[in-house]
Task: structure prediction
Amino acid sequence: MQPDLKLVSLLSTGRHPKSGRACRANQDSRALELAMKTSSQVTAVHAGNPDNNVLRQYAGMGLKKIAVLDLPETADPTQSLKHYLDEQSPDIVLTGVRAEDGESSGMLPYLLSEKLGWAMVPRIAEIQSIENGKAKVLQALPRGQRRLIEVDLPFIASVDNSAAEPRQSAFGPASRATIETISTEIFTDEALAGWQLSAARKRPKRLKIAKAKTAADRFKAATAKSQSKGGTLIKDKPASEQAKAIFDLLVTESVIKQP
Amino acid sequence: MTTVAHRRDPRTEWIIRNRLHPQHEALFASQNGPVRGPTGLIRKNPHNVGFIGPNGLKRIDRLEGNSSNVISINRQVRQVIEPEKPLHKVEQPDFHILVVPDLAGGRLTEQDKDVLGQAHTLANVEGSKGAVVAVIFGEHRETGLDQAGVDRLIHLEGSDYEDYCPELKLAALATIEQQLSPKHWLFPDSIHGGADLGSRLAATLGERPAVQAWQVNNQQATCRAASDSIDINRETPKILLLAEECADAVDETRHEVLPVTVDELIGTQTTLTDHGFMAVDPNSIPLAEAEFILAAGNGVSNWDLFHEAAEQLGATEGASRVAVDNGHMPRFRQVGATGTWVTASVYLAVGISGAIQHMQGIGQCQTVIAINTDANCDMVKRANLSVIGDSEEVLKELLLLIKEYREALSHAA
Result:
């Protein structure tokens, strides 16, 4: 816990995976959890409607106050958020990787980092340490791997699903929290007007196209078991030689990690 | 024109019809062409089709050489000869379409191939012809770039690109953008770095990308949004981050893979420093995601040795159903149709003969290594490397090799 660090956590409206109702977003609440674990000076910011009930769910995690930049749905929040962050000058800004509602392009942290000139670290799972103006963060990679990245403060990071679970939202603190509305200049998202939104169409399943020209080939393709073509077989050799062959393959496939 | 009158020889005809006649073979062979019966109808000899196979049995080739796979009869050297695909050439491209594949693990992923396929659909415009240019950073192990549809290749070599360096890569892409001014930039929208790099480039160029695009043509792009609940139809932008299975991969052509040189890259300041991978307990990784699995089956007797081998190799443990049913391994370690479907890049099966349910579970594994006593089992047929012998001895030797390797590394360091 670093009490002197200023963190800003950006909150968005989530979408319940089953019912589709508005709720706190998975990655954003994980980001808020990470922020609250790292420092006691956390500012939670939402760009949108200040009367949004979902904000209370975030507040129930133990926030005294949520700042809301009052913007209509058709507005582009990037510029407003940039001005806000310029004023606040936090050390770390945390967001989710991709919003659960709206365009959900995942571009916001990148645009902010470009506008503010800060570093951007995608998909972090943990902030390990912060010393001398440098932070060490763990980045979540596919296949459960973690990478240690050192980055200068201030920076923006998006928080991955593999970060720690968010704490429960409690009703009492949720209703006690104040929602501070900040009115800002509205920049309308002009590209949005040219888009057509529709309910998601079912994507066609990819079919296996039989390229075989004859019935016998099609039959073979349908019934054949998967077999490797060039498998090598080592038989009647001493165990040391066989183990060496396996070991060499493991090294060329680079799965043996160095200590 | 004179017509040659043929005099019928009823005796010869009779001999040809009578396959029991001693002169039948010789006379039949001398007469090419159809044999006509006494009424003038063409007679087929049903006994004269096919040929005698290598094991003395008569074989009939009903495909008449039409089979696309010409398989040699000798089963030991089973080799499939594929006809060469036609070469797709783009001599003077009117425009360029750039693709930045992930190359996760040094090879093109399925999504990379689909993105290359999508690039070709965008390159085929009526009246002009575009070239698909792939940008590859660092070393790779892919050999099928020509089959995947790469017309031009920008290969940026150097050890700098081995680590996590999005800023360096971004600077390189910005240079390429200036040099080629491509019509489109295509990235796979994946967790392997494609989405990250694409978003960075879009932010730098001030373009609004189409994200999670799954149906794209030259006019319109359809993108998934709001947790896959809505589709956004929009004009196809310059930068596209493409979802999985966005288009069909290139299948019927070969491509040139001509190298393209890039201007000197200007050194950029990096704010991120990569300190490498952190040690993760392999057994804490979910089995479905694990990259390297050491799986045990009925053939394993020394379980302590197996667990030690998994720990030393840094492999996630898996098991066949028999090993789980016998109580040697917990249920959540079971691999196969009734357990977990794994996606490991290396699957080392110890003493697993390979029931069909198990083989289904490892269908997506790239490299399979088998240690088994039975050379005829299904696992050995599937494996890229099979070792026939006692698993205990082989594992012991493997442990020795790892210890030597680790010691050599620590001495060098």
